[in-house]
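Structure, all two chains, one model.
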Amino acid sequence: MIQLYNVHKRYDNGVIALGDVTLRVREGEMVFLTGPSGAGKSTLIRLLLCMERASDGQILIGGRNIHALRDDSVPFLRRNFGVVFQDFRLIGRRSVRENVAIGMEILGLPGKDIERRTAQLLESLGIGYRADALPRDLSGGEAQRVAIARALVNEPAILLCDEPTGNLDPKLSREIVDLLSEVNRRGTTVLVATHDAALIEHYGCRTLTLEGGRLTEDRPRRDATGLEASGLGASAVATADAAAPASGDAFPEAP
Amino acid sequence: MNPIARGLYFVGAALRLMRGSPWLNVVSVLTIAVSLSLCGLFAMAFFNAHTLIRDLGASLTIQVYLADETAPERVHDIEARLRGHEGVRSVRSLSREADRERNRKLLDPALLEGLDEEAIPGQPVLELELDSALASRGDLERMVQWARQIETVESVEDVAFGAERLRLLFAVLEIVQSVGVVLSGVLLASAIFFVFSTVRLAIWSRRDEIEILALMGATRRFIRSPFLIEGALQGLLGAAVAIVAVGLLHLELEGLVRDVYLLNVQPSLLPPGMVMWLLVGGPALGLLASGLSLGRHLRV
């Protein structure tokens, strides 16, 4: 679903945000991306969203090389993603209902469908009773649920979360990650950037660690017994390396 | 969402933008209205002066007075030479008797009582009617020069050419045109600046929303449309205010033009063509300004 091959990101001031990162996230996986501040977690998410372009290397989303993507095609790539941020980024002057509806307005769906789907989603996330509230009247947990609802409203293939629990207490953080796990169980690929070690330990998902812009560890998911599950994780880096193409769109899918 | 619903969605979004900074929008609309009003007034002044010149030009004649003893062959010769000149529509030859008869009709009959026939002025005259296509002051001056040359022709005693009023009108027209172009340019530039600033402020105040829209897959057109429509709506409102203002002002001026300046001309009130121009020009001005502002300040 997400493949990075020798990705570099250098800024004009000489700072190297990412250096030679190769990784693969398969369809339906839930992966934590961790590391200290400035490790490159947010940069990686920005590259996936084409908010910035990689200086070098190849990035594939669903088998499509986004390095060669034209600017006017970027919006259509982004429709494959739902995005959740630490600071929620809800639009202050719009109600909860309107914040969630934006994604469907962008797609030009009929008003009745937008209304029905928004109501359904807010109910399923337990915030239907706040539909008419403005973001400033929401608690942190409610605001993040609205942000998740907004991210999910168009049923994206991939959910990217950049420190989604950064502004929440431990109990609310668990609730939010439980929610993300539920989303993942329904088939959405979920990538969560976080530096909350306790959370990572608790959920035992596959964890990619970035330090100084380099991928230093790829820890596989633990199964229910607490043992590392096979088939994913560290081996994926090596597999990806072996399969790395020279250029173009014709990347082989993961075995 | 069908195209109409889509369009209405963008208009709604534009109205929300306008509600976000109402005072700035009012200033922009008024600036556009003032600019378009003054442009409209200059255009109307120009249009009316042009109509007046055309009407005067159509009635303009040159009277070439010949010496009494001029032989008929010589009259025909001069007439033939004048007829072939550029800008001359027709030449009418009047004998001394015909000219005297015409003058008699111009005089008060009471004055003519007991007057000797020979006392009424009369001499052979060639009367030239000119083309109304005196497009510029240059055309008129060339005609005046030519009239002076006719005076030097043998057998010609005098030439009368009532070009003074037309010359004055051309001078007025030139001033109206020059001042109008400069002032309209300045005013339109200031209107563009105000709309540009309004849209810039709207972009700045909505930057969080714009970023979210872009991240959720909104196209450039989806993000830009409400801002463009905001500019166009400002222009449309400004044009509507301008049409009303110019209309009212002209109703006031209509009598003044006739009564004070004694011009026997019906001034043209806001012609439909100009209303159309204002209704198209206003939104076009707003679109141009918001487009410039988006190009400069919106990065998605």
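Chain B has ten helices and four strands.
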